[in-house]
Design goal:
glutamate biosynthesis, 16 strands, alpha+beta, Glutamine Phosphoribosylpyrophosphate, subunit 1, domain 1, about 20% strand
Length: about 500
């Protein structure tokens, strides 16, 4: 599935992996599945080919993909052909898996997945081999091409968690068990990957050029029955990392153009928090929760790490817009004009999670919401159209979808820290100011901060005058007649500066 160097090789350092890409989405405010959504989204992707990249082998791309709402009518027809039927929409989920080519390893993968699914109360309804056409793929892509299969599972009656939370647990536990069964080291080369496992969305992607996606998955994407009310596309340019099938985007909930400059710190903090993770919403004990660790897959790019953490936040109970606001906050700290309630929201969030900072356009969806946001400095482009016909179109640039001038209701660009959000349940676009006012007013963040925040000035005020004298650091202690003063400002000064106390 990939030929990534394992560890440092020459000037290559995997910790410095970054992506720069083309991102876009199309949304139907009516939430009615449409064939036109798929056709236009594929065309959008192809028109952003220049934002992707390919290697010396011109037919091997860095990656391309599309994330859509489950095409229920299409899936019902093709699963009948595969020999099984689906329950009502919302009562089943689809997993898109990159599988081993070797028959024995693939069957072992399926067996382990069945065992984990049944232990959690799910019924595996059936498997479907996704038809693909690799005739246009380059040598490098062919060498690592996986077998792609879909699995269909029912909702578990054993768990009180909602369906998407159940699937998050199923995916996490099955990945760990499959890796063990196939003797795949975490962080090492592997031939198994879960593109998506959801009751709302499905991801078609691969180590492809944008112009190859439709042809590779033509049996599905080219079928007139394949419809969706939304589509998120991504054309990958692996700036200083390597292309691979699993690193292609969209990820499970997002498409990302940019880079995360704080990645090492973000990963380290997530690792540090893992021992404290607990979620009543998932219904897992701390021991069971530990089986889902590590949260961040060390084989993933910066986009993959972001996706891992964002998914954890939304599966543990936060709404998607709130989780994105937590991870990509506005520049709030020194903004004297910002609403105090909104500033309190961001300050409270900063105590829970540090920002994932860097130039970025992030598009995200969980099936109910579809949106995009820019980093606090606005260092990646994002343009959008809203039409009278009820469509929202967003992309890294204009011109990727033809829109008649008389159909344009509104158009513009994303501003730094701005969020463009479509709510499919309410069939509307949520205004950025209204959205953030809604979340900042939902809880008394200002009161919580006032009650719990420790101010440095308050600490200083509680210290006696003699203790407040700044210690001398980096100098030899000066002799003094006053032995107490000599100890405080001389020999003990560096120790006091670093927080050492008498005991």
């Amino acid at each position: 599935m990939s030929k990534l160097p394992q560890g440092d090789t020459g000037l290559y350092d995997p910790s410095m992996d970054r992506d720069s890409c083309g991102v876009g989405f199309i949304a139907e405010l009516s939430a009615e599945p449409s064939r036109k959504t798929i056709v236009d989204a594929v065309e959008m992707l192809e028109r952003m080919s220049h934002r992707g990249a390919c290697g010396c082998d011109k037919n091997t791309g860095d990656g391309a993909g599309i994330l859509v709402a489950l095409p229920d009518a299409f899936l019902r027809e093709v699963t009948k052909d595969a020999g099984f039927e689906l329950p009502p929409q919302g009562e089943y989920a689809v997993g898109m898996f990159f599988m081993p080519h070797d028959d024995d390893r693939r069957e072992k993968t399926k067996l382990v997945f069945h065992e984990i699914a049944e232990s959690l109360g799910h019924v595996v309804l059936g498997w479907r081999r996704v038809p693909t056409d690799n005739s246009d793929l380059g040598k490098a892509a062919l060498e690592t091409e996986p077998t792609i299969e879909q699995v269909f599972v029912s909702k578990s009656m054993h768990s009180k968690a909602d369906f998407e939370q159940q699937l998050y647990i199923l995916r996490g536990l099955s990945i760990k068990s499959i890796r063990e069964a196939l003797c795949l080291e975490h962080g090492g080369p592997n031939d198994f990957y879960t593109c998506s496992l959801s009751s709302r969305t499905v991801v078609y992607k691969g180590q492809l050029k944008p112009t190859q996606l439709k042809g590779y998955f033509f049996a599905d994407l080219g079928d007139q029955r394949f419809k969706s009310y939304m589509a998120l596309v991504h054309s990958r340019f692996s700036t200083n990392t390597f292309p691979s099938w699993d690193r292609a985007q969209p990820m499970r909930v997002l498409g990302h153009n940019g880079e995360i400059n704080t990645l090492r710190g973000n990963k380290n903090w997530m690792t540090a928090r893992e021992g404290l993770l607990e979620c009543k919403g998932l219904g897992l004990s701390r021991d069971e929760m530990s089986k889902l660790l590590p949260i961040v897959d060390v084989t993933s790019s910066d986009s993959g790490a972001f996706d891992n953490v964002l998914e954890l936040l939304i599966r543990s109970g936060r709404s998607l817009p709130e989780a994105v606001m937590m991870m990509i906050p506005e520049a709030w700290h020194n903004d004297v004009n910002m609403d105090p309630e909104k500033k309190a929201l961001y300050e409270y969030f900063s105590a829970l999670m540090e920002p994932w900072d860097g130039p970025a356009l992030v598009s995200f969806t969980d099936g109910r919401y579809l949106g995009a946001t820019l980093d606090r400095n606005g260092l990646r482009p994002g343009r959008f159209y809203v039409t009278y016909s009820g469509r929202v179109i967003m992309a890294s640039e204009v011109g990727v979808v033809d829109v008649p001038n008389d159909d344009v209701m509104r158009k513009g660009r994303l501003n730094p820290g701005m969020m463009l959000l479509v709510d499919f349940e309410k069939h509307c676009i949520v205004d950025d100011d209204a959205l953030k006012k809604q979340y900042s007013g939902a809880r008394p963040y200002g009161e919580w901060l006032e009650r719990q925040k420790i101010q440095l000035a308050d600490i200083i005020e509680s210290v006696s005058e003699t203790e407040r004298i700044a210690p001398r650091i980096g100098m030899l202690p000066q002799k003094s007649e006053n032995k107490e003063a000599f100890c405080i400002h001389g020999i003990l000064a560096p120790l006091k500066a670093f927080g050492y106390t008498v005991e």
